[in-house]
Amino acid sequence: MEADKYYARKRIVELDDEIIALGPEFNKALTQTSESWHDNAPFEFVRDKHALLATELHNLDHILRNSLPSIPKQKKGIVGIGSKVQILNLKTNKLSSYFIAGDWTSRAGHKINESIIMSRKSPLALNLIGKTIDDEVFFRAPYVIKNIEHQDDTVYS
Fold first, then answer.
1. What is residue 155's predicted lDDT score, i.e. its pLDDT?
2. Residue 43: its pLDDT value, please?
């Protein structure tokens, strides 16, 4: 989804800036005197902070490089990426609506247009993908698929 790609690109710029800003902190931590080389808490703090930022940056960069340019075309009536799916809990008779995004979305768990956004890798999405209307799925309770709509990403951006 374009909004997720925008968020990822924006966050990458923020992470780059934060990593660059650590330079003076690294210098300060390295030049502080300490009783011994292994007792340098300021250096370890900056090093750990750098590692966390660099890992997040790497993960977002990997997601962007490997993401599809758009939602793939889906076969009509089959749940896939870009599908809005309504499922009925057979125990509670409650109807829920979900939108299946790609591998990663910054809005997972948020409700947009009455549908909860979830990654295609979420446990519920993995149970739904490839199914059709009236198929039963089990995810903590028995559900039946009541409706499938295919959306473009602008609906959820």
1. 46
2. 76
User: Which CATH architecture describes the domain 83-156?
Assistant: Roll (3.10)
The letter for the amino acid at 35 is: E
Identify whether the C-beta of residue 100 lies closer than 8 Å to the C-beta of residue 82.
Answer: yes
Tokens of 66: 């490997």
Other beta carbons within 10 angstroms of residue 134's beta carbon come to: 8
117 in Cβ contact with 105 (< 8 Å): yes
Ranges of beta strands (E only) in 52-141 are 83-89, 95-100, 111-112, 115-118, 136-138
- 135 sits in the region (left: phi over 0; alpha: psi -120 to 50; else beta) called beta
pLDDT score at 45: 82
Structure-block tokens of residue 142: 């028995």
Tell me the C-alpha distance between 116 and 2, whole Å.
17
| Six-digit token string for 151 | 């959306």
pLDDT along the chain (157 residues), means of 10: 76 88 79 62 82 88 72 75 92 93 76 87 92 92 92 48
